[in-house]
Each structure stands twice: as structure tokens, then as C-alpha cells.
Specification:
five-stranded antiparallel β-sheet, mainly beta, Beta-galactosidase, Chain A, domain 5
């Protein structure tokens, strides 16, 4: 009998080991019920051994395993080991953001002559869709194969103050050239505003105890949109030439981030939108970040007009992530492809309006490789 119990325990232990993802996650730790819907963890793999784990809670990328210059697999995004941690800590780690990524001034929009008041959840403005944006909603999931996953969500008319029933989909595809291809689509029954993005926090060292100061960053942009002291865009588009905002050639993030420049003081570092020279051409990389320490590089492609580079300035060491590692200040880089912030209130900028009969389409690629 004792031998039988030992065999059973060994079998259970073996099953638990098999259930673990390459990044060390246990899918069982992501299974619970939130708002009456089931949450889970889904795994994408490619022929190179790369792995991406995604949960339908907030449509979040939980882990991304890629090889470094020595062939060692490293997890290059911040996140948590369980759904309970995501429910406990209000963060945007890896999340699908909507309806409107970034900020809307005073939480106010006007659509077809009607004014709508949105939540004011950030310095008096509406940030990332309000208090309960898409990052806290449960998506329906459909996984056709080990390379691709489609999330869908119905954002009902009036949700967080936005007009229109918005039916949206996000498809994640892990390609065999080590790229995460993300395609967003949405349709509405009333004119509304839409601006979706992914809010992954990339740490290309695969070591969240280290900050991003040594990463080399380039952004293909001659201009950016400055902000005021509340992080709100002023409506101006100004040149990067001669400023710490110039990333047209690779620059170490830490080289100028603490410089005597008003925009860096307002943003507490880099937290700004760049006006991309790629102008919707998603066959050209719009930004590249590279860690000389691991040799891991990330190219970003998009059909959107802008990208928000956020340097993790608000990470303060108060949150412990995967494997109990404390996430300190600037332990990551966020590169959020998007319409410009507060576009609904700045008609001179590319429109974020979506009307009945139209389809919103946004495309982003995160492509990893070794230099």
C-alpha cells in the first residue's frame, strides 16, 4: 500500500511538472471565475521553441520566452504567477487596452454633437478606458492551433461612459520568425471612439531586478507630442531635434532620462507619444529596443500614427511579480502603438472615430531576435 501511495504521489508530481509552461507558470493558477466568466491561461508556441502565455483576464500577455545570445531562454515581460495577483494589483501588465488607450482630457468627448462624460481616473483625465477598462474585463477565447489565439469582447453601450455597443476582437499569432503579431478589429452600432493597444512591460534582460538604463532605443520619429504637468498632450507637434526626445539613432535610455528638460520633468522620465515617420506602413519597424547584456532585440511595427514610449517611471518596488521578483523603478520598457493621446478633442490629429458600418483595424508586431 505504501508503495502504491508513493507511486501516486510521484505521478501527481510528474503531472504538475508537465502542466508547467516553459516560463514556469501553472495554468491551474489562472483558473477562477470573475464577473461570472471563467479565466484561464493559454499557450502559444512556434517551431523555434519560443513561448507566449496569455490570459483572458484583460487579454494579457503574461510571459514571453525568447532565446538570448547564448541560446538561453528568457522571460522578457513583467507579470504575475496567478490570476489572484492580477486581481489584487491594479496594473496594466501585458494588457489589451481599450476602449481608448492613453488619456482623454477631463474625461470629456463629443460625438455627433452629444457630450459624454468618461471616468476621471488619472490627474483629472480618463486613462486607458477608465476605472474598469478592457484590462479588467474577461474576454472570450478561441484557440485554433498552437500558434494563434483570438479574444473577443462586447463592450456595451455606456460602459465607462462610452457610446455604442462595441464588438471587438484581438488576434495574437506567434510566427516562426519569433514575432507576436497582434491584430485588433471592432464594429459599433453607434458612432464612438476606439484606440486599442497592448501594454506589455518588456524587460529584455529577462531579469526584472535590473532597470532599462542600458537598453539602446531607436524611434523612427522626427516629432513628438509634448504634455503638461498632468501628462496631457498640449495639442502641439514639435521636433525632437536637439532634445532628449531624439531617438532617430540608437541611444541608451538612461543617458538622458534624468536630464534638465521640462518634458522629462513633467513625465517623470519618458512617458510620451512620438509621431511616427512610418505613417501607417507596418512593413517598416517604427521602433527598436536592444539589450547589449543579453543580445535580445525587439522591433515594433504598426499601421498606427503614433507610439507611446513609457519607461516604467511609476514602478516603485511595491509589487512583486513572477517568481517573487520585486519590480523596481524603470525595470521595463512599454512601446504602445496608438492614435495620439486625446485625439477625440484634437480634430487636427488622425481621427479615432468609428461609425456604424465601418470596421476599426489596428496592427502591431513585436518581433524578437538576437544581435
Amino acid at each position: 500500500m505504501l508503495a502504491g501511495m508513493v507511486a501516486l504521489l510521484a505521478a501527481c508530481s510528474s503531472k504538475q511538472a508537465e502542466d508547467k509552461t516553459l516560463s514556469g507558470l501553472n495554468p491551474a493558477d489562472f483558473r477562477t471565475e470573475v464577473d461570472g466568466k471563467q479565466t484561464d491561461l493559454y499557450v502559444l508556441k512556434n517551431k523555434n521553441g519560443m513561448e507566449v502565455c496569455i490570459t483572458n483576464f484583460g487579454g494579457r500577455i503574461v510571459s514571453v520566452m525568447v532565446p538570448d545570445k547564448d541560446g538561453t531562454m528568457r522571460d522578457v515581460v513583467l507579470g504575475f504567477d496567478s490570476i489572484q495577483d492580477y486581481l489584487t494589483h491594479e496594473t496594466d501588465f501585458g494588457a489589451t487596452i481599450g476602449r481608448y488607450a492613453n488619456r482623454i482630457k477631463n474625461g470629456e468627448i463629443e460625438v455627433d454633437g452629444v457630450k459624454y462624460q468618461l471616468p476621471r481616473n488619472n490627474y483629472g483625465h480618463c486613462l486607458h478606458g477608465g476605472f474598469k477598462g478592457f484590462q479588467y474585463r474577461i474576454f472570450d477565447m478561441e484557440q485554433a492551433d498552437e500558434n494563434s489565439l483570438t479574444l473577443s469582447y462586447l463592450s456595451k453601450d455606456g460602459e465607462e461612459g462610452f457610446p455604442g455597443n462595441l464588438t471587438c476582437k484581438v488576434t495574437f499569432t506567434l510566427t516562426d520568425d519569433n514575432a507576436i503579431d497582434i491584430r485588433y478589429s471592432a464594429e459599433t452600432d453607434r458612432t464612438t471612439v476606439v484606440n486599442m493597444t497592448n501594454h506589455s512591460y518588456f524587460n529584455l534582460d529577462g531579469d526584472a531586478s535590473r532597470d532599462n538604463s542600458g537598453y539602446l532605443l531607436s524611434i523612427d520619429a522626427d516629432n513628438y507630442t509634448p504634455v503638461d504637468s498632468t501628462f496631457m498632450t498640449t495639442g502641439e507637434i514639435v521636433p525632437v531635434e536637439g532634445t532628449p526626445m531624439d531617438f532617430r539613432t540608437p541611444v541608451a535610455i538612461g543617458e538622458r532620462i534624468n536630464g534638465d528638460f521640462q518634458q522629462l520633468k513633467y513625465g517623470l522620465g519618458y512617458d510620451h507619444n512620438w509621431v511616427l515617420n512610418t505613417k501607417g506602413d507596418d512593413s517598416r519597424p517604427c521602433a527598436t529596443v536592444y539589450s547589449p547584456r543579453t543580445g535580445i532585440a525587439l522591433d515594433v511595427y504598426t499601421n498606427e500614427p503614433g507610439i507611446q514610449f513609457y519607461a516604467g517611471n511609476f514602478l516603485d518596488g511595491s509589487v512583486k511579480g513572477k517568481k517573487g521578483v520585486t519590480y523596481g523603478r524603470r525595470a521595463s520598457v512599454c512601446l504602445e502603438t496608438q492614435k495620439y493621446p486625446d485625439t477625440p478633442n484634437k480634430p487636427q490629429w488622425p481621427s479615432a472615430l468609428l461609425r456604424p458600418g465601418e470596421t476599426y483595424n489596428s496592427h502591431c508586431i513585436f518581433k524578437f531576435y538576437v544581435k
